[in-house]
């Protein structure tokens, strides 16, 4: 059970009383009462390693130690140790006694909840030429005491929202290492779940229903978590008879709770698209487009639909390492290289280009963003190069061309251009495959 709203009582320590004491030595008569120690204060600090308030589930009262009283021989009482409560970033602190609110929005932010009492002064402080034996002293002041309410609003990069049972938890599990409960009935998710995708924090918000802003279903308990998310992924069930109504229902509850929520960047995904025909998916996506231009279809029914990040990294690493089989590397050496490359990606020290991430290890395997294709001045070579170029462009790669096989004797002595036939054919091929050869080395030099 996640605790995200809790009320506690905090009591800072009282200051110690000052002492009344006199030196009995005839040579040093006079007051020697020490001061009391200060009471312990109670602080709160926002930390990154916490995302719940479960530490306050059973501990409802926090009390700091009192300061020690002063003693004779001008010895001051010991000051009490302060208490620091660790809370997640994104917690709102409501001081119910004073009616003051504050927010903890930065890691390391530290504020005082209750100030400890000041220690009283001993009679040594009250000595004067006219009062050589004062009996006055001060009592320590009491520490502050407040009723405090902690309200956690999750800070996430992406919030997954929608009606119950639309696939939010399933999407979170597929994209991250989260292990949210998934079942085919509403309200499977009863509390927010978090996951990390690359450096992005994803928050799975429990399903909202009509009337949630008035407390129906799970009520407004989780609507507040949407306030701190930067981007919203709104999931709509593809099997719904009226996806537009489903979309508007959630938007209306957000508007009632806080109109500013509607200004957040939002992407709409028609989930469970594998359960309906492609024509129906296309039709429903087009119905949602007028409401949100960022409307797409999504399916998690097939495991291959969404590939986990760790699986992508290993697929790329092992396929790049397998290239060394052609150079006599052993299986152990290849696996070691793959593990090293995997760690580089996992630690975000290096990422291969997009065509490599997408295609490595697949049917149209590609381990580079750009390929230099050799070409000779013959129709057979030109046509073969155009075929290879088309296959590379189909998987998102780029191409460059090496004309050195044409031979320098074929270069025109005045224009320094390679044979015109090669340029003409390749230019046509590039236009057909929507790729600009000029970006990849079509020039007037022999490469």
Distance between the termini: 66 Å
SSE succession:
EEEEEEEEEEEHEEEHEHEHHHEHEH
Structural class call reads alpha/beta
Profile the largest sheet: 6 strands, mixed
The CATH level-2 architecture of the largest domain is identified as: Distorted Sandwich
**Coarse shape:** elongated
Number of domains: 4
Strand content: 15-25%
The CATH superfamily of the largest domain is GTP1/OBG domain
User: Could you give the count of β-strands?
Assistant: 18
Tell me, what is the CATH class of the largest domain?
Mainly Beta
Helix content class: 10-25%
| Overall mean pLDDT | 78
Which residue ranges are poorly predicted, with pLDDT under 50 across at least 5 consecutive positions?
A: 182-189, 409-418, 434-447
Gyration radius, to the nearest Å? 35 Å
Count every helix, treating DSSP H or I runs of 4 or more residues as helices. 8
